[in-house]
């Protein structure tokens, strides 16, 4: 019904930047909140940043001032600009979206994940 496809991950040196994108497609009436999570090896998945349909944002303390979440509602896309990357940012990054379906209630969907590796 709904697919989320992430892109933009890769290998970068500490201090570098990456921009992640996540595009939603399918039987979508409206997308409410969208967000980025990450999961490092041996750790639980954690929230990195979230953004409401109206553009209100929230961030994990560990990324405040370095990462910026944004979205383009017309393109059904959420972005994560990551600057001043650190080795501790290495993880698989997942986007999610709370989607109001054309037929049915609001459901949360997840992307397949994109690997971000920061070398020291």
Description:
With 120 residues, the protein is mostly beta strands. The chain has strands at residues 2-7, 10-13, 18-26, 28-39, 46-51, 57-59, 67-72, 77-82, 91-101, 106-110, 114-119. Strand 4 (28-39) and strand 5 form a beta hairpin. The chain is elongated, with a radius of gyration of 14 Å. The mean pLDDT is 96.
Quick recap:
The protein has 120 residues and is mostly beta strands. The chain has strands spanning 2-7, 10-13, 18-26, 28-39, 46-51, 57-59, 67-72, 77-82, 91-101, 106-110, 114-119.
Radius of gyration: 14 Å
Average pLDDT score: 96
Largest sheet: 7 strands, mixed
User: Count of DSSP helices?
Assistant: 0
Query: What is the number of beta strands?
Result: 11
Helicity range of the residues? under 10%
Distance between the termini: 41 Å
Low-confidence stretches: none
How would you describe this structure in keywords?
single chain, four-stranded antiparallel beta sheet
List strands and helices in order, with pairings.
Blueprint (H helix, E strand, L loop, with lengths): L1 E6 L2 E4 L4 E9 L1 E12 L6 E6 L5 E3 L7 E6 L4 E6 L8 E11 L4 E5 L3 E6 L1
Parallel strand pairs: 2-11
Antiparallel strand pairs: 1-3, 3-8, 4-5, 4-9, 5-6, 7-8, 9-10, 9-11
């Amino acid at each position: 019904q709904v697919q989320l496809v992430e892109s933009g991950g890769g290998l970068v040196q500490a201090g570098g930047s990456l921009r992640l994108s996540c595009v939603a497609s399918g039987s979508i009436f409206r997308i409410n909140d969208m967000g980025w999570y990450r999961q490092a090896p041996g750790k639980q998945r954690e929230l990195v940043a979230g953004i409401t349909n109206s553009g209100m944002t929230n961030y994990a303390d560990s990324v405040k001032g370095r990462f910026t979440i944004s979205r383009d509602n017309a393109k059904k896309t959420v972005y994560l600009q990551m600057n001043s990357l650190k080795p501790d940012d290495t993880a698989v990054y997942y986007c999610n979206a709370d989607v109001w379906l054309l037929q049915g209630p609001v459901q949360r969907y997840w992307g397949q994940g994109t690997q971000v590796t920061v070398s020291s």
